[in-house]
C-alpha cells in the first residue's frame, strides 16, 4: 500500500463477563480521610451496571458472574478512582479511600495554548474515530484533557483530570470514560490508549430507540468483540467470519544488509576516508544500492486455506479459552462491506480480488498466547495488535460488554 498506515493497539481495559451459573456480590464503603461519602457514583467498567453509595457511604453490586472487573468511583471534588477486582463464588468487600482533587481547591492558572484546538481535534480522530458514528459522538468536557506534545520524542500524550463525558448520539449511549493514558507516536504513526468505559442508555423517542438498536447491531457485528465471542462458541462460520493466516517469506531479490551497506560506504567514501561530493541521476550505482536498501526484507502472503477453530483455540479453564498462533491472522467478515470512508482511511488491507470489499482485519499477537472469555472480552488487551477494520473502529463504535444480540436486534 502506498498510503500511510496508522496502527491501533487497542488498550481498552474492559473487564470480562463470565458465562457461569453462580453469581456473587461486590460490596464496599467509600470514604475520604475524614468520613464516609454518600452519593458517590460506582460503575462497572465496560458495562451498564452502576449504583450510588448510601447515607453511610456503602454500595452493593449484586449478581456478578465470577470474573475480573474494574470498579470505578466518581465523586465531585475527588480524583477518579479505579480498582481491579477478581471474584469467584464468594462475595468481595472493598474499603475505598478517595483523594481530594487539589486542583478544585485552589485557583489554577493555565497558560493558553494556541495549538490546543488542533491537539484536541487530533485526539478525537484517534480516540473517538473517523467512522460515520464518530460524527455524532462528542466529548462534552474537553477542558478535562491535559495535553503534552513532546517535540523531542515526537510523542503526543493526553491525560484527563476527570472522567471524560462522551455523548454518542449515533448509538444512544452516554459514556463515562476514565482515561488512563493516550499516546500518539508521530514517527511510526501508532496510537496507544487505555481506559475504562461505562455505558448509560440515553433517552429518546421510539424512532430514535429503533435507530439506535439498528446502529448498535451494525457496530457489534464484525467487531473484535463479536469475533472473540464467536471464536469462544466455535460459531465462526455461522457468524460470517473466515480466518486465514499471513505468512512472512523473505525477499530473495534483496541483497543482504551487509552487502548493501558495504557498497554504499564504498561509493560515498573517497581516499583517506573523506566523504565524496556526489551527484547522481537515479540510474548510477549509488542510486541502485540506495533503492535496494529501501526494498522490503520480506513479503506478507495470505494463505487462503481456512484456519479451523480447533487448531487455533484450546481450553484454559472452565471460563477461559486460549488462542495461540504464529505470524498474523487475516480475519474476513463477509456479512458487511467496507465503506468508501474506510477506504480513504489508510487502513485498508491488501486482498485477493475475490474478497471485494469485505471487512478485513489483521490480528497480531504481542504475547505468546492470549486468553479470552465467552462474551468476547480479551483478558489482556495489551497482548494484541489490530490492523485494518478493527483499528478503524474506536470509541464511537463501542457497545457494552453486556450487549446482547438476538434476531430482533434487541438488548
From TrEMBL:
<protein>
    <submittedName>
        <fullName>Carboxypeptidase-like regulatory domain-containing protein</fullName>
    </submittedName>
</protein>
<dbReference type="InterPro" id="IPR008969">
    <property type="entry name" value="CarboxyPept-like_regulatory"/>
</dbReference>
<keyword id="KW-0732">Signal</keyword>
<keyword id="KW-0121">Carboxypeptidase</keyword>
<keyword id="KW-0378">Hydrolase</keyword>
<dbReference type="Pfam" id="PF13715">
    <property type="entry name" value="CarbopepD_reg_2"/>
</dbReference>
<dbReference type="GO" id="GO:0004180">
    <property type="term" value="F:carboxypeptidase activity"/>
</dbReference>
<keyword id="KW-0645">Protease</keyword>
<feature type="signal peptide">
    <location>
        <begin position="1"/>
        <end position="20"/>
    </location>
</feature>
Amino acid at each position: 500500500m502506498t498510503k500511510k498506515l496508522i496502527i491501533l493497539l487497542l488498550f481498552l481495559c474492559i473487564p470480562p463477563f463470565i458465562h457461569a451459573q453462580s453469581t456473587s456480590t461486590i460490596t464496599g464503603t467509600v470514604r475520604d480521610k475524614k468520613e464516609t461519602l454518600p452519593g458517590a457514583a460506582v460503575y462497572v467498567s465496560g458495562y451498564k451496571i452502576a449504583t450510588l453509595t448510601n447515607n453511610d457511604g456503602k454500595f452493593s453490586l449484586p449478581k456478578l458472574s465470577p470474573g475480573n472487573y474494574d470498579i470505578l468511583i466518581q465523586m465531585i471534588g475527588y480524583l477518579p478512582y479505579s480498582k481491579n477486582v477478581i471474584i469467584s463464588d464468594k462475595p468481595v468487600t472493598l474499603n475505598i479511600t478517595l483523594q481530594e482533587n487539589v486542583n478544585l481547591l485552589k485557583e489554577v492558572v493555565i497558560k493558553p495554548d494556541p495549538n490546543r484546538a488542533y491537539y484536541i481535534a487530533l485526539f478525537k480522530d484517534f480516540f473517538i474515530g473517523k467512522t460515520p458514528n464518530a460524527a455524532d459522538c462528542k466529548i462534552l468536557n474537553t477542558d478535562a484533557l491535559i495535553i503534552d506534545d513532546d517535540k523531542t520524542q515526537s510523542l503526543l500524550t493526553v491525560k484527563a483530570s476527570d472522567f471524560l463525558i462522551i455523548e454518542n448520539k449515533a448509538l444512544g449511549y452516554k459514556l463515562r470514560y476514565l482515561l488512563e493514558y493516550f499516546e500518539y507516536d508521530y514517527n511510526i504513526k501508532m496510537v496507544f490508549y487505555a481506559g475504562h468505559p461505562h455505558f448509560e442508555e440515553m433517552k429518546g423517542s421510539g424512532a430514535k430507540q429503533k435507530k439506535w438498536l439498528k446502529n448498535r447491531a451494525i457496530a457489534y457485528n464484525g467487531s473484535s468483540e463479536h469475533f472473540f465471542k464467536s471464536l469462544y462458541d466455535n460459531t465462526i462460520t455461522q457468524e460470517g467470519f473466515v480466518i486465514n493466516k499471513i505468512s512472512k517469506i523473505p525477499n530473495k531479490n534483496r541483497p543482504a544488509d551487509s552487502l548493501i551497506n558495504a557498497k554504499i560506504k564504498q561509493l560515498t567514501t573517497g581516499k583517506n576516508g573523506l566523504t565524496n561530493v556526489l551527484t547522481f541521476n537515479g540510474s548510477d550505482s549509488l542510486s541502485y544500492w540506495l533503492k535496494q536498501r529501501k526494498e522490503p526484507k520480506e513479503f506478507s502472503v495470505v494463505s487462503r486455506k481456512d484456519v479451523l477453530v480447533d487448531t487455533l483455540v484450546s481450553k484454559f479453564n472452565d471460563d477461559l479459552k486460549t488462542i495461540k498462533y504464529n505470524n498474523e491472522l487475516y480475519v474476513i467478515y463477509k456479512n458487511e462491506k467496507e465503506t468508501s470512508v474506510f477506504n480513504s482511511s489508510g487502513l485498508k488491507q491488501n486482498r485477493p480480488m475475490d474478497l471485494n470489499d469485505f471487512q478485513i482485519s489483521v490480528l497480531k499477537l504481542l504475547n505468546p498466547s492470549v486468553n479470552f472469555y465467552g462474551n468476547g472480552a480479551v483478558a489482556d488487551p495489551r497482548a494484541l495488535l489490530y490492523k485494518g477494520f478493527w483499528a478503524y473502529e474506536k470509541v464511537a463504535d463501542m457497545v457494552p460488554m453486556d450487549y446482547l444480540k438476538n434476531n430482533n436486534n434487541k438488548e
